[in-house]
Amino acid sequence: MPVRTDPAPQQRTEPRPGTPRRARRRTAATVAALLALGLGLASFLGATLTGGPTEPTAADGRIPDGETVSPFDDSVPSVSRLDPALLAALREAASVVEADGRPLHVTSGWRSAAYQQWLQEDALRTYGSAEEAARWVASAETSAHVTGDAVDVGPYATAEWLSRHGAPFGLCQVYANEVWHIELRPEAPEDGCPELIPDASAAPGAGE
Fold first, then answer.
1. Contact indicator for 205, 104 with CB cutoff of 8 Å
2. Which one of 83, 160, 185, 203 has the lowest number of neighbouring Cβ atoms within 10 Å?
3. pLDDT tens-digit profile of 1-33?
4. Which helix (H) or strand (E) holds 28?
5. Is the separation of the CB atoms in 191 and 94 below 8 Å?
6. Fold held by 58-202
């Protein structure tokens, strides 16, 4: 074969034009914004899927669904932060009820304002309207749970019994649609329990 004697083509050695500095800054800013958006979305999804850092805890007075708490358990804030007079009356009633073979549990007692707000927002999602949600969950500003002046009891059969026989202890059902919601009425042993309020939305101050 003949030997090629012409010089081989030279590789291009000059550098390519660089990316303009302004474009590099714009690209970096875009990447940073996307990263921030991704982190924010991940944080939101984490809060949605796992309850997140704002989900109420026992320190807020939350009692997880399915758990039972004795009205004599002072280690639980939901119980220990109830109004002392209400708690004393509840324990007196519990002693009588349990001696008769009926269990009496606290399903919800004192609640922090943040927990009450969380419940209100959950009720809005559940019922689909603010009007219906207000029938079942009072605002943090008006809820007797936040001040420690209300307790929800279970099981249902015991709550029904207490709604009929709680007056001698000063314990009264307050809302017609919530047999489990009990509040202290000191005059009840003498005068009986007052007339039921239709629901939480009709309570004094609820519309203020």
1. no
2. 160
3. 444 444 444 444 444 445 455 545 555 555 444
4. helix 21-50
5. no
6. Muramoyl-pentapeptide Carboxypeptidase; domain 2 (3.30.1380)
